Amino acid sequence: MIVQTGFEDTQLRALPRFFGFCYPVQQRLLVTGFAHTGAILVLAGLFEIDDLCHAPSFCCKPSVAQKDREVYLIRMKAVTYLKAHWQLFAMTLVVFACWNLPVIWPLKVLVVFLHEASHALAALLTGGRVDEISLSVLEGGHVISRGGNLFLIISAGYLGSLLLGSALFIFGLHTTWDRTMVAGLGVIMIALALIYMRELFPLVFCLGTGLVLLGVARFLDQRVSDLVLRIIGLTSMIYVPYDIFSDTILRSHLNSDARIMSQMIGGPTLFWGVLWLVISVVVVAAVLRYALTASSNIEIKRRL
């Protein structure tokens, strides 16, 4: 059986540039995005209020009320947390602020590449073969494969790209393999482009991006590779849940992976979309909870 996963999305896939100037559908997407971010923060347990309110080492003036004491504790913990991870918060704000701008477009297409590469990897690992991988300028793509486990191949798109992005994020935060990981991603992009891509745009994009990543790993400071891994991973963790919501829930009529799963395996399209969305939010929350323990800021050396 020949399976084609993915689709060409010709509709706008963006958040409004300014909160006050957006269409009703975009307003709902923006609200959903903020709700998604809030849910992740809660699930990640970044602010454990109960623990804060019962911190034994805190000393306060006897005249301060218990409620004020608890509020003060929460504020101090929040300030400490923000100082420890201010760079990641700044990256997140920049990604959201520039979401509609061309500067973020390569990152979106790179996440789509991870999506399609995950389909291809699942097909190969389950005994199938891959005939073609393609990417679109409109942030779409598809994989044509034969054989393999259909359930795993179709599920691997959104969830696989999220896992790959999360892995890059964790490697950037907690290891010194930054150059190796950036160079490895570059080699994989070039290899998949040469083996499986037939169209001009995906060939140019993957070969060009792969060479840039190899250059970053070879010639630039290790901290640049660290930053690259964090940005790619962070963009993936932002983009995948939003993409699932947009493609499978808000616009469930599209020929998305959820619709293909419904046709091939069974069950409503909305069911698969909601299931993948819940899994993606849980994965992002778990990654943040694990990764953001100590300070995540990249050390900036100052010249005297």
Can you characterise this structure?
The protein is mainly alpha-helical. The chain has two domains: 23-84, no CATH class; 102-291, no CATH class. 66% of the residues lie in helices and 6% in strands. It is built from eleven helices and three strands. The chain has helices spanning 24-44, 49-53, 66-84, 86-97, 105-125, 150-174, 178-196, 200-219, 222-250, 257-264, 269-291, and strands at residues 2-7, 129-135, 141-146. It has a three-stranded antiparallel beta sheet with strand order 1-3-2. A hairpin with a 5-residue loop joins strand 2 (129-135) and strand 3 (141-146). Helix 7 (178-196) crosses helix 9 (222-250). The termini are far apart. Mean pLDDT is 81; it is low at 10-32 and 37-62.
Task: Itemize the secondary structure elements and their pairings.
Blueprint: E1 2-7, H1 24-44, H2 49-53, H3 66-84, H4 86-97, H5 105-125, E2 129-135, E3 141-146, H6 150-174, H7 178-196, H8 200-219, H9 222-250, H10 257-264, H11 269-291
Antiparallel strand pairs: 1-3, 2-3
Helix pairs in contact: 1-11, 4-9, 5-6, 5-9, 6-9, 6-10, 6-11, 7-8, 7-9, 9-11, 10-11
Question: Which structural traits does this protein have?
Answer:
304 residues; mainly alpha; 2 domains; 3 strands; 6% strand; globular
Shape designation: globular
**Domains, number:** 2
Given helix and strand content, the structural type is mainly alpha
Number of contiguous helices: 11
The largest sheet has its strands arranged as: 1-3-2
What portion of the residues fall into strands of 2 or more residues? 5-15%
Distance between the termini: 65 Å
How confident overall, as mean pLDDT?
81
Strand count: 3
Which sequence of SSEs, written as H and E, runs from N to C? Answer: EHHHHHEEHHHHHH
Which regions are unreliable across 5 or more consecutive residues at pLDDT < 50?
10-32, 37-62
The major sheet is characterized as: 3 strands, antiparallel
Report the C-alpha radius of gyration, rounded. Answer: 21 Å
Helix content: 55-70%
